[in-house]
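Onboarding guide, step 5: your first structure request.
Type a short instruction followed by the sequence, for example:

Predict the 3D structure of this protein.
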Amino acid sequence: MKWSQTIIPTLRQPPKDAEATSHKLMLRAGLIRQLSSGVYNYLPLGWRVLRKVIELIRDEMDRAGAVELFMPSLQPSEIWKQTGRYESLADDKFSFKNRVAQEYVLAPTHEECITSLMAETVNSYRQLPITAYQIQTKFRDEARPRFGVIRSKEFIMKDAYSFDADEAGLDKSYEIMYRTYERIFTRAGLQFEIVQADPGLMGGNFSHEFMLLADFGEDIVAKCSSCPYRASRDIAAYRFENSKNLAPAADAKVPRPEKFDTPNLKTIEEISTAFKVKPAEMIKSLIYVIDGGEPVMALLRGDHEANEAKIRRLSGAATIRLATSQEIEKATGAPVGYVGPVGVPGKKLKILSDSAIMQLTSGVTGANESDRHLRNVVPGRDFSPHAVGDLRYAVEGDRCPACENGRLHFVRAMEIGHVFKLGIRYSKPLKANFLSREGREQPFIMGCYGIGVNRILAGAIEQNHDENGIIWPESIAPFHVELLTVNHANAESRKAADEIYEKLNSAGVETLYDDRDERAGVKFNDADLIGVPVQVVVGEKNLKANKIELKNRLSGEKQLIEPKNIFSALKRPNIFP
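The system replies with structure tokens like these:
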């Protein structure tokens, strides 16, 4: 490809709103241009990299025995309502009605679609196991798109789905995809970590995320200082240091609960400041709605942050959301900011307590009356939760749950892949059944496996760059060689470069030929910026000695060779087909 015949609009400086390194360099190197918030054009260089990533993924998925298909992005809302995810996605989904008032969803993922398809086409255990995958565009109405293609409204994903007859089959399919992902990300030249994760809206009860450590990642990973424990912040556990009985007998020295006036004081900070109470001595009462209807109360210390994933798991719910102010008042009789566990009828509102709450000698909480709170509240004496467990986010310095001496610390990361054991989360509500060996109808046992294709591109840049620009791993580089002339107006240089270009093309070497009549400094800067692994420089001075220059973009190493020796000099992995 000749530079003069393509579109590579390089920039000296990125737009001011670009934060992530990958976003800045993708704009500067002419890989992308924004059309609107969270929506991007991929220019020729960016599209070439995406194609390389897609073909790499396809090669490994086919090698693993998966079969490729292609499903529609336009899906009837009915199948999303059957699984309960229509409501769960809420404002994150794009949905609309057509001219005959039929509602559609622009799919952010395809569990409902693939499960419906398999229900129609697979009816016997003899056809199992099977894993199907696709690579296509997805849509999500991100409230705050950021970091370029890392978090956008329109994105490309590889999603795969396994269908098995039993849990043992799912375990095998999951292991195959787990190992396939390791090969994909390794071949793409990425340094990644595999962490335990929360399935979230996808459902199921077991999953792993493949993470790149990155300053501008939108995820946080907990790592142990002493052992291999790694977990997403959403599920990171910690070793509870107090082994005191979870329902201690009432301390005779603590008087009965006493109401006190707190006019217009609702928050932990406001109460703490006004009454000199430590947040760690306050009981925070949060009301959630689970599975679309039932309210529950979650109790945490005032200095702890509620982890909705853990609350959902302890409640046994499939979905969870914070209650509205109207729902809070209906469940407790009190307005927001004055809710507490004392006096709440057990049959009316289930109470879930974090373990740390049950260790309080006494605490302060809402009195379930407007402008009033309670002091001297003793857990186990003045209220009894229905369930006790870990409901908070782990924090820096917490003890590791997997070893004796380790402490947790947290790092930013970017998710590039996620594997899930879904079980019957989708096959059961969609009535996707097959005939078992025993002749009984039973739902498929499913797994789901996703890769953010765009994120591989961004992640590769986050991990492979310097002050001059991108340094592409050879396996996904847009070209393997960039050929440039120091002075394209010089006839001898131009002739020599043209001949080299023809030879490289004939040999199947992917070559970008910078044939612009630009200053040498501009061409050298652009070459480093776009990051092609090998630069071949043709200049008048070296040609007089029958030499051309080769530069390794990664190491910066340069060497002079005779033009006739270019093929032997380029003999390296991924350069020649």
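Each response can be followed by summary notes, for example: The chain has three domains: 3-71+107-212+414-461, 258-389, 479-569.
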